[in-house]
Specification:
The structure is a single chain. This protein is α+β, with helices and mostly antiparallel strands. It has 3 domains: about 250 residues, BirA Bifunctional Protein, domain 2 (2-Layer Sandwich); about 110 residues, 2-Layer Sandwich (Herpes Virus-1), CATH 3.30.40.230; about 140 residues, Rossmann fold, CATH 3.40.50.800. It has 19 helices and 23 strands. A 7-stranded mixed β-sheet has the order 3-9-10-16-13-12-11. Strands 20-19-21-22-23 form a 5-stranded mixed β-sheet, with helices on both faces. A hairpin with a 7-residue loop joins strand 7 and strand 8. The structure holds glycyl-adenosine-5'-phosphate. Glycyl-adenosine-5'-phosphate binds next to strand 10, strand 13, strand 16 and helix 13. The site of glycyl-adenosine-5'-phosphate has 19 residues, from strand 10, strand 13, strand 16 and helix 13.
């Protein structure tokens, strides 16, 4: 774990050094849990959004998009339940004066039991080698069983306390589990209190009678209040979905772990409206579809898992998270909720407008039920980078062409011991192709520019002529560029270039005329979407 934390720290500084993510307002010492995206970050972010948007609106002819305003009528947040129930239970340590989410402290304690079990199992696996029967070990080892029992008991008690909204019991769990403040190391805790996460501001001048309005904590409500507009103007029939990408704001109590928990972030949400009674079948379908979307990126199937909710949100009758294995453990990246008819019914009540669908097949009107898929762009961004970040001992074997018959005109890799490479799925990579003249004279820059000028209309390309070729490769590895194309003196004669592949570092001599075809396959969004 300590090693993983080290990797996470390196990833954060890598993001800053290479123009992915900067702390907001940095020259004024930053603003808590608010971040800016740099020149490479914004490209990656846009590519993630395109992947999601296209998968929703191109692959599903019954899913359409909207872009609703951030400011909305304040009654919307009363109707949605956010004014009364969008709270986190907070607890303070009296010695360190640090504030924590009580539920997160307990979840971390559960994870500690899990950790102990896994460590015990790993140790035994090493000791017994191939003869190791993991299932049997987990079922019989006394220490594993003891921790499993503790974990289960805590889990059950925690889930009940959450469902009952029992704040005293949450505090008691923290006391009984002897959870200490990570800063002061003491157990000197305050009571647990509820804290509403919505930011508010005022619209209109005070003289006119200003109205208190909220910065939206989710984009979903913008979809619900436009249900009738979209259904009628698009002549949509149930089942159909509305997708939206946009900013959301939450005054998070504990905003840690870089862009994992931010106060201003971006969501990609889709509400899928279905017949009452059919929602759980659709919930299952969207669960599987969304998992395929994640896995199609090739970051490793084992890095994902479902996590069903213990405490259902006030609007849901089924809920699961898709979790990704971040450097700080498996964490939620996306939530999939069966939201019943809660939101539309509530908006009917609060607005006084009829929000129903007449189903010609059933010859009846009803308030549709809703399946929601909700993913944070920033968390997705973090999962891609965490999955892609790799420190490797750089082998120079590719420069000798030992493993590929096609390698005919290698350009030497530097002989540094390690390279940092972001193995970002090529479709999402901020820069797709770097064009590098071997030297900045003898007509090589002109030839390189010619290649760039041909490819730049479709792909984000970078031209670089500074420093040795090896250093330039390393710079491109660090931002995840899947292809580097080197132009040398022979290129002027035979019209061929060396293409160097980021992940394998293999080099291949290819005709300039074939370049586009070679890179197109892996950079094609269409090909990626076909695999979902
Ligand atoms: N409309 C449902 C909804 O908002 P949620 O589970 O609260 O559900 C959905 O949020 C997703 O939004 C999460 O899975 C996460 O990816 C992202 N998200 C939520 N809070 C966030 C925060 N403070 N910072 C970054 N991303 C966040």
């Amino acid at each position: 774990m300590a090693q993983q934390e080290e990797v996470f720290k390196k990833l954060i500084s890598h993001c800053k050094e290479y123009g992915f993510v900067f702390p907001s307002s940095e020259i004024y010492d930053g603003l808590g849990a608010v971040y800016d995206y740099g020149q490479n970050g914004v490209e990656l972010k846009n590519n993630i959004k395109k992947y999601w948007w296209d998968s929703m609106t191109l692959l599903n002819e019954n899913v359409v998009g909207i872009d609703s305003a951030i400011f909305m009528h304040p009654t919307i947040w009363k109707a949605s339940g956010h004014v009364d129930a969008f709270n986190d239970p907070l607890i303070d340590n009296k010695d360190s004066k640090k504030r924590y989410r009580a539920d997160v402290l307990i979840e971390e304690q559960i994870a500690k039991y899990e950790d102990k079990i896994n460590k015990e199992t790993e140790k035994a696996a090493k000791r017994f080698g191939e003869a190791f029967d993991e299932q049997k070990f987990r079922e019989t080892n006394p220490r594993v069983l003891e921790n499993e029992a503790k974990k289960e008991a805590l889990h059950t008690r925690f889930a009940k306390a959450l469902n009952d909204g029992n704040l005293e019991e949450l505090r008691q769990i923290i006391i009984d589990e002897e959870i200490v403040c990570p800063v002061s190391g003491t157990r000197n805790w305050t009571e647990v209190r509820q804290f509403n996460l919505m930011f508010s501001t005022e619209m209109g001048s005070t003289a006119d009678g200003a109205t208190k309005i909220y910065l939206r904590p989710e984009t979903a409500q913008g979809i619900f209040v436009n249900f009738l507009n979209v259904q009628k103007s698009g002549r949509m029939k149930i089942p159909f979905g509305i997708a939206q990408i946009g900013k959301a704001f939450r005054n998070e109590i504990v905003a840690r772990q870089f862009i994992f928990r931010m106060r201003e972030f971006e969501q990609m949400e889709m509400q899928f409206f279905v017949r009452p009674g059919e929602e759980l079948a659709w919930f299952e379908k969207w669960k599987q579809t969304r998992m395929r979307w994640h896995k199609a990126l090739g970051l490793g199937d084992k890095k994902y898992r479902f996590h069903d909710h213990d405490k259902l949100a006030h609007y849901a009758n089924a809920a699961t998270d898709i979790e990704f294995e971040m450097p700080f453990g498996f964490k939620e990246v996306e939530g999939i909720h069966s939201r019943t008819d809660f939101d539309l019914s509530s908006h009917e009540k609060f607005s006084g407008k009829r929000i129903q669908f007449f189903d010609p097949e059933l010859n009846q009107s009803y308030v549709p039920y809703v399946i929601e898929t909700s993913i944070g762009v920033d968390r997705m961004f973090l999962s891609v980078l965490a999955g892609a970040y790799s420190e490797e001992v750089a082998s120079t074997s590719s420069a000798t062409g030992s493993s590929a018959a096609e390698v005919t005109a290698p350009v030497a890799e530097p002989v540094e011991a390690t390279r940092v490479v972001l193995k970002i799925p090529p479709v999402l990579a901020p820069v797709k192709l770097a064009v590098l003249p071997l030297v900045k004279k003898d007509g090589l820059p002109e030839k390189a520019r010619e290649i760039m000028d041909n490819l730049k209309f479709e792909y984000h390309c970078q031209y670089d002529e500074k420093d040795s070729i090896g250093k330039r490769y390393r710079r491109q590895d660090a931002i995840g560029t899947p292809y580097c194309v080197t132009v040398d003196h022979d290129s002027l004669v035979d019209n061929q270039v060396t293409i160097r592949y980021r992940d394998t570092m293999q080099q291949e001599r290819v005709p300039v005329a074939q370049l586009e075809q070679i890179i197109a396959e892996k950079l094609s969004m269409k090909n990626l979407l076909k695999t979902i």
